[in-house]
Structures are given as structure tokens and as C-alpha cells.
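Q: Give me a backbone?
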Amino acid sequence: MDERTFGRSQQHASVIGLGTWQLGADWGDVDDKEALAVLEAAAEAGVTFFDTADVYGDGRSEETIATFLRSRPDLHVMVATKMGRRVDQIPENYVLDNFRAWNDRSRRNLGIDRLDLVQLHCPPTPVYSTDEVFDALDTLVAEERIAAYGVSVETCEEALTAIARPGVASVQIILNAFRMKPLREVLPAAQEAGVGIIARVPLASGLLSGKYTKDTVFPENDHRTYNRHGESFDVGETFSGVDYTTGVEAAAEFSALAPQGYTPAQLALRWIVQQPGVTTVIPGARSPEQARANAAAAELPELPEATLSAIRDLYDRRIKEQVESRW
């Protein structure tokens, strides 16, 4: 699989990575054996970038990745984790002492001395404008606790503020066929600055797979049930912030646009891979079959202009009004 570079850090990631929120919590139950099988399938398909966080299953996701990589010392996988969601979401908690404590925990969970990439995990907006926060992150690099740092953001404005910081290696942002606003300013600014873009929620929490109907029921411990209206965290993380009924209807139209040989999910991933400025896209997977199918999207032919135009038209007609004013 092709790899792309995080310009400022010169680290490399496969164009399709693996998001491992599903392997920790909040997407229903997944056992350890199945989680390891997902990691194995992704790696065998050429994935060299795993994205995790210290709060996914309270560290379970990080620990599962560590177990897998210990069993496969032949692999070279870049692991990106996140920090900052273990405390109350107030700017005062984003200080060096907390960073060191969170960093120590993630390094233990992952079984390594220096983390490849640490991202602030969608912190309060004022954090992006606080010099002391980025001075603290620079200290973690100087102490060789981390190789590089980035941010995970909710809004395009937060992304642009972060890109202006000279030490930021990457920005993780929601980008998919139901969330196109980042294409206008964020991706061009990142390209110019040499900042990597990690595209998350690429399938709009599964909507773009075309598998769900208005009658689909998700488990109680799945965020697609308990956070549908933003009860636990930013609603944009669930179905990209699109009303579920609207999303299901639009997803049916999206599925009909898939060229021969593409599944709807592969269409969604291939669309992201083709966007200038994207470094890697991180779909999750609940099974080895899903992991392999996601990775295979990187090898599919480029989408023709007619398909790209039809996807844009669908977004403009059905989705844009719901999401662009908020994120």
C-alpha cells in the first residue's frame, strides 16, 4: 500500500490506516481474540498506521495494540495515540505535569519508551491558542517521550489555529462525503505548512457503508445509541452530526453511486484518499473481513469526475445545511 509523509516530522503512514476506537469501547462488545485478529488482518493488508487513544476502553485499545506488536516484531507500524480526555474538559488541565502523567500511562500501555505521535484529544477551543500548551508539548519532544505531536479537532477553525503552530505535525479531523467543509481551507493550509491530515470518521459512523436502515437498533453501549444527540461528547462524532433519518436516506443515494467493483464503504474511503492534502484515513473495523475490505480501497482505480461531482451534489442537496455552520 502507498505511504504518505507527515511533512514536518517526516514520519510515514499508509494511505489507509486503522482506527481502533472500536477495539476499546463505545461500539458494542468486541473480545480480545477478535480485536487481535482485526489488527493482524489490517497489517497483512499493508496498513502501517494505527490510531488509538488513552481513553478507548480506559487503555484497552493501547494495550491490545501492544500485545499485537509484541507478537509481530517484524512489522513497522506507526502508532498514534491521544491524550486529554481523562480529566474535566477545562483549559487549566492542559499543563505539563498532566501531560507527563498521561504520557507515562500511554507508554506503559503501549510498552514503548517513546511514542510515535501524541495528539491532543479534541481539547477545549482555548487550548489551541495557549502558548504554554505547545511549549509543554515541545518539552515532551525534548525529553524524548514523544517523537512528534499533533491535535485532534472538532472544527475547521480549531484546525487552522493548530496548523499555524510550528511544532504541530498533524491534524486529525472529521472528513468524509458527509463532512466536506475541511476541503475548502483546512487541507490547502495543511499542505502549504507541511502538516499531515488524518481523516477520521470516514464512514460517518457506518452510515456510508449503506448497511443501516431507519429501523436499525444499535447496542446500548454503542455511541450511535447513547450519543445520538450529543449526550456524552460532541455530536459531530456520531454520524458526523447528521440527523440519522436524513443520513440513512442520503446514504442510500450514496451507495447507488458506487462504481462496479466498489462497495459503498470503499467508495467513501477512496473519495477521501483522492482529496489533495490527506495523509491517511482511519476507518475502524469490527472484523478481519472489514479490515481487509477497507485496506483494499487503496488499490481501487481513482474515481471518475462524474462520480466526484455526483457525491458533491448529494452533499450540497442533503447534508451541507445540517453540518457546515457547526463544524
Notes: The two ends are 31 Å apart (CA to CA).
